[in-house]
Amino acid sequence: DDGAMLFTGLGLNNESLRMQGTGSSQEVFDFDALNSENPYVNMADHAGLAVGMVIFDLDPGSEYEFEATGHVFTTTSNGTPAWSYTFPTTLNYFGGGVAVSDNGNRVLMWKADPHINKCRIEAFDAQGNSISSGQLGYESNGNFFFNSRQTRLSDDGSRAYFNIGTHIYIYDIATATVLNDLDMGASFDSHAFSGDGKRFAYGYFGYFRVWGETSPGTWTQIAQRNFPGGTFVARCALNEDGSPHVTAVISRAVHRLTC
Length: 259
Hints:
The protein is mainly beta and 259 residues long. The chain is 0% helix and 55% strand. The strands form seven sheets. A four-stranded antiparallel beta sheet has the order 4-5-6-7, with no helix packed on it. Strands 8-9-10-11 form a four-stranded antiparallel beta sheet, with no helix packed on it.
């Protein structure tokens, strides 16, 4: 956060959620999550709130039955969560995640669930009161896609961005509805969502594209940049205020471009 607190999720047989103080390696707390999958973590930029998701396999045998719980902490906590939310168990799928708005007023948690072939999405306020519950996913040629490969939350927590399969969903937090659904034609890790929730970008082989909400409820492609064949746009980022600048990692070089 902007107070230089550090919240991390540890793995490799040392699974835990760890808060460290400003300018110090001293632990504020260490929340034990031993024998879980690698935790997911996120922290509010301008508020003393952090959230971590830990996922345990509840099946005592060789099969899997993963259970995910999101724990919310204050930065002054002694390691006891302020509140928690547990998702239904999800067989052999442990994909999920957490996000917090800049001011800490919105907490977003999501979990892929093969029982229903959907991604479960839960949104809360800072005190743990439910704002909305939703589900995303789709079927194509008998295959179900429901794990979010990339997820972003707008700065104010009003909108979220989900990349599930080849689809990009702009999701309204208050109403748990899809504001825009774009099939990008493939699934990659290069995605960006502006802080105001009104622009997004994604990378592909040979190009990246930027889309924007040009009028309320209307989303259009506003830019495309092409690159030589064989070039892959590995990473991209957008300005927080949605202004038309994109930073992209292309063939190991960083480019800043105006759309």
